[in-house]
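Final report, Chapter 2: Outcomes

The project's central promise was a pipeline that accepts a single protein chain and returns its three-dimensional structure in a standardized token representation, suitable for archiving and comparison. That pipeline is now operational. To close this chapter, we reproduce one record exactly as it appears in the project archive, with the input sequence first and the structure output second.
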Amino acid sequence: MTVTLRIAVFGGTGFLGRAVVSRLTGSGIAVRIVARHADSAAGENPSGLVEYRAADIQDEAAVSAALRGADGAVNAVSLYVERPGGPSFEAIHVEGAGRIAALAEQAGVASLVHISGIGADEASASPYVRARARGERRVRSAFPGAVILRPSVLFGPGDAFLRSLEMITRRLPVVPLFGHGGTRLQPVYVEDVAAGIERALQSPEARGRTFELGGAGIHTYREIIAMVLDHLHRRRLLVPVPFAAWHLLVTLASILPGPPLTRDQVILMETDNIVGHGMSGFSDLGLTARAMEPLLGICFDART
């Protein structure tokens, strides 16, 4: 197998990052996994194409060293919940993203793929969503040729999305919905996003563009719950809960050391998370996304 490229994958030990590493090494591409705790993951991937580099994206010297000799880079680092004493959305999604982009440009890295999310908007009520949008702007300013990918809700073996739905439908006799459960989502298989990242890294036509990546099907939240219940052969009553009640709940839960739900997560569920009209997507990368329902067996089998 001939190694033709070396890609630095920041966040390579995360859910999406692991799929990206597997995809790239499967294509004979050497990968440098860059993560805060990369050392603890060393040895998980026996391929001779993988090296591990411990680095915090808030550390400029460490990021610069991780990019040295790389032909391309992927920023798959994400933070969904801010914890007391931990990093902030600003530190990860804005400052960290901008730092990777600027140092990649300085290092002469040929291609950069930055992972954001559908709905990134600087005017959002969600600090998380606003940070995602500011991060995109910072990346584009520092590395004009960067490819920005905005996936919808990710799913796959070991994901957080389906795992939470399985737990809720197992533990509760009724399933509370966000509002009436009418929020539309376009769940996208993690392996399809990994394929999109590989294609974006190698496609000159993708440089400087933004792509929104959604799966083959658009479903309401209620429909997804019903789909999961049917697959797991469970019967549960679906109960609408007004968003005002959810906001009150998260306000009360915010005093807990590890709240099960955050304000940002509720805000996200108030808006459809689907590919925008006229946006570039999988087809523009020469790829076809898969639907969620036929893949539920693969996803849930991995949990047993």
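Archive annotation: The radius of gyration is 19 Å.
This record, like all others produced under the grant, will remain available to the consortium after the project formally closes.
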